[in-house]
Amino acid sequence: MSLGYAEKLSYIEDVGKVGMTEYFDPPHVLQEKVERLAMLLKKSKHLVVFTGAGISTSCGIPDFRGPKGIWTLQREGKALPEASLPFHRAMPSLTHMALVELERAGILKFVISQNVDGLHLRSGIPREKLAELHGNSFMETCSSCGIEYLRDFEVETIGLKETSRRCSDNKCGARLKDTVLDWEDALPKKEMNLAEKHCRMADVVLCLGTSLQITPACNLPLKSLRGGGKIVIVNLQKTPKDKKASLVIHGLVDKVILGAMDVLNMQIPPFVRIDLFQIILTEALSIDKKYVNWTLRVASVHGQKAPLPFIKSVEVSFLDSQDYKAAILDKEPFQLKRRTLQTKSFEMVLKFNFSDGCGCSSTEINIPIDFQVPADCFRLDRDAIFQKLRETAIQDSCCGQNAVIEKKTILSPNSEVTVYAIITNIVRYNKTSKSTEADSLSNGDVKRRIDRENGTETSRKRSKGRKRKSKF
Ligand SMILES: [Zn+2]
Ligand SMILES: [Zn+2]
After folding, report:
1. Which of 108, 278, 83 is nearest to 203 (CA)?
2. Domain 272-427, what architecture?
3. Could you count the other beta carbons within 10 Å of the beta carbon of residue 470?
4. Residue 172 annotated as binding?
5. Is the predicted pLDDT of residue 185 greater than 90, yes or no?
6. Its family (predicted)?
């Protein structure tokens, strides 16, 4: 059974206590508050950010409490909002990426999230600087050895139950469990302890898009007060902790954060998503040894039965081999069986059609095949390859760039396994050559920025905006 994410998340908050009226600070007040926030961030020695559903609303993930939030609609018996993208393709918001930049700049020390969408990890916040208090829909863990597995598909259960996969550590092999809490589950101790420790150390706890109503998580920011720390709350609704805060900003989180980044003269980095898949070529010689019966399979790296949600279909064709018939693999498992002459080498072209994402529709990968040459096995430096792929994707402003990161052979059945890394999404937040899903979902500021890039603002500001750190 697969749960919709609205159901998955429904454990998070109690519908009864909803205070859903939204407040917006008038523009001049907002501007002054944004500048105060920027100064607090600049001077901060140990910034902790505490996030809730409100920072993911521009990612195509509906909010819970606003007038069009899940709870409100549910209570009024109305239909729940359709997500503009499937959950597994949700993209980080401008705010998620701004946090990544603040972390890289050494300002942000720790992120505490109540969201289960996994977008902080996806966006690039290091695992050790993140506490996901309610779990992560894409994460499973081994309860025996503790290894965490971040998947590209939604894990099928919630409530810390066993999933259908096992730990891939050879010495372990224990059953994996999901990480998303159900109503009765206590908050994870390890994450809570870390979160608490960082809140005690914090001189600023910035609460973004959370109504601060779920205990005990909502009391974490208060831990900073004893050591002289300050609380800043950015949220459209009032919260029960407003009285304890040094600064309360009623505005859209993306808008406030973009404003603060502007004041700090910091850029919001593009989001680049890399996914992995493997091509498995299994071969068996015919009895007369003249032919090879082979099977090509495009599969997930997460195990034989795992889904491959970012690929919609694979079109197979053959270069310079008109006698080999083309094929369309349009459902999982993506698999093609053929019988060809053992002595004849050929080249296959695989056209990958992507499922919903940033707008890039497909990419092609060429695969030369020669059954007479044994495969060479290797394992390359992943991080170096990822880095290079990111750089090219940012330069090209489109997806599909790919590279082999590993090749291995299996003896029985006799197979060659090639692992690929592929860019499946790129989103820019402050400069764009083409419209992306995230742009159209964000509030007006993204457009304002594009106009600025196009030259409607002064050159002083433009050159300021161009200053980039070469982080990628
Ligand atoms: Zn294990
Ligand atoms: Zn794309």
Report:
1. 108
2. Sandwich (2.60)
3. 5
4. yes
5. no
6. Belongs to the sirtuin family. Class IV subfamily.
